[in-house]
Amino acid sequence: MRLMLDTHAFIWLDEAPEKLSDKALAACRDATNTLHLSLASLWEMQIKIKTGKLALQDPLEGLIRRHQSQNGLTLETIDLPDILFLDTLPLHHRDPFDRMIIAQTMQRGFHVVTVDEQFAAYGVPLFW
Fold this sequence. Notes:
The chain is α/β, with parallel strands linked by helices.
């Protein structure tokens, strides 16, 4: 299964795996699944780090590199079709980073690992 990690799910997987549901944690640790993270999540984390709203145990670049080597994490670029697809989404969710994750999920066929129930309004496959 191809799993798109919502920003909080990625952080929890690294720093507080007990916050993930048993099902989500098992899926993230299952080597037959692939883990994906949108560049929107990296952008969101970088902004929150700079504004003091987020403190990570490791520098962001090292954290990403470690997950790429240990978990095979794939970073999902934001392409023009992703941006244009946002126009088709109703405004159930107003967070721009989450909306991009939703757009990428819908376009690329991921299951989203998230506790955010607003994602369900878009009919994306949730994994929690």
